Amino acid sequence: MAELSKGRLRQKREDLKEALVGEVREHHKFMIRVSLRHIRAMEKILLGIEQKIREKIERDYKEEDELLQTIPGVKENASTVIAEIGVDMDVFPDEMHLSSWAGMSPGNNESAGKKKPGSTTYGNKCLKAILIEFGWVASRMKGTYLRSKYHSLVGRRGKKRTSVALGHKILIMCYHILKYKRPYKELGEDYLDKRRKDRITRSYIKRLNHLGYEVILQEVA
User: Nearest CA to 72 among 135, 127, 129, 163?
Assistant: First the structure.
């Protein structure tokens, strides 16, 4: 096994060989059996809970479940969102209250009148984890607004913070979809570019002017 090591571990093969030499005694076997029984018991409990959630969704919230599945990255895990926040969005004054309750709102970090990135608030850890997972999956779905949003943020915020930001956006989408009973509307991968068209155009013209070019703009038919 030590010979299978890679990278910097190859320099420690002798130490690995020594570490891999040992003896599994009876009490070690007993603890391994206990741990495996515990894992199987927990898996059985989780399967039972998931089955109950699925039965409840199919019986009472099938429409809401199908609507949430239209969001990129959500798919069959929409039932988890419903289990955590319900389907009645009137209990939240607006989407920002839901975001704060879920722990997906960025904290207020302002100094000298300038707003800076802040960490998210405390909230529903289970919901927060699944939303971040949704964001990570959505960032890899080609041709979507969420993918383009990921690439527009990742250079400044890094992968983890950007996944949280996408999870926050997905939660806001869930709020409006559940409140107004409308499916997700895909904006497209070029939505951000179209929205920032004027700013991008001015930026490119300025750069070309600095390089000594005179730019004449003409709309393509």
Answer: 135
3-state secondary structure at position 123: coil
Contacts of 49 (CB under 8 A, 6+ apart): none
Query: For 168-186, how does the pLDDT look when each residue is reduced to its tens digit (9 = 90+)?
Result: 999 999 999 999 999 999 9
Q: Where are the alpha helices (DSSP H) in 21-144?
A: 26-60, 62-68, 78-85, 95-102, 125-138
Q: Directed axis angle between helix 125-138 and helix 78-85, to 10°?
A: 150
**For the purposes of burial, counting CB atoms within 10 Å of the CB of 165, is it exposed (0-12), middle (13-18) or buried (19 or more)?**
buried
Amino acid at 50: E
Q: Which long-range contacts (CB under 8 A, 24 or more apart) does 86-91 make?
A: 87/61, 87/178, 89/175, 89/178, 89/179, 90/179
pLDDT, tens digit, for every residue of 66-77?
999 999 999 888
Q: Which residues are CB-contacts of 141 (< 8 A; sequence separation ≥ 6)?
A: 72, 73, 147
